[in-house]
Amino acid sequence: FAQTQPGVLYIEAWPQMRAGDEVELTGALGNGFPTGQLRGRVALVAGGIGIAPLWYAARALAAQGCEVRLYCGFRDEPYTLEKFERVCAGVAVATDSGRFGTKGFVTDLFRPEGYSAVLTCGPEPMMEKTARACLAAGVPVYVSRESRMACGIGACLGCTCHTAGGPKSTCKDGPVFRGEDLYGV
Q1: 0.90 exceeded by pTM
Q2: In contact, 147 and 4? CB cutoff 8 Å
């Protein structure tokens, strides 16, 4: 799938499909980062493949004039950083191996003070540590959960997570949640 223009989706189809055939899609489901509501200095904290959804957030935030800084952690070798370097005011890297950037965890590099908001995606322990630091500092934080989602509409309850408001489906009610809803203070 590739969106070629708003409302038009190019689909590399099965051989039996022809131009003009109708296709039904369900989406977009859930909710994303509230980039349109954010202003000022915004930090993105990513771990591993959690960097992927943050790319779209980085572009949107930079386009609306936010100062965006990326903090990212990888096991060994970072990837896609050149894209972020084009739109971010700064990029800090931590690797488990120490071959690139600082040896250690991305949460060792990141401090929430001075940011108007923080967006995070990656391994659960990293996101929890990031969110708790933000909450303690009074900085709004948005967490994009990585969960296996079987149905995508909240029916199977396979991606349920516990929130301050009770159990929620990551696919339907998320995947982005406010930090205080997941981790409280």
Answers
A1: no
A2: no
